[in-house]
Design brief:
Number of strands: 0
Distance between the termini: 18 Å
Number of domains: 1
Helix content: over 70%
Strand content: under 5%
Order of helices and strands: HHH
Structural class: mainly alpha
Number of helices: 3
Largest sheet: none
Length: 67
Amino acid sequence: MDNDNGLSCTVDSCILGLHGLQYNDCLAILFPFYIAAEIPSNMMMKRVRPSIWLTFIMVCWSVARIG
């Protein structure tokens, strides 16, 4: 589950099969880590051009998803 799935998923129409409070639990786990990762990422975008930083993190994400 990532940020896009979490925000677009509702309890009634969730393709993840979550029921009841499971949706809230997933979001409660997701958002602190999302915010914690967003702050250093924004700091890096100020040090390095956004085109370089965004390309770098997209390549890293692709390697992580493939591997």
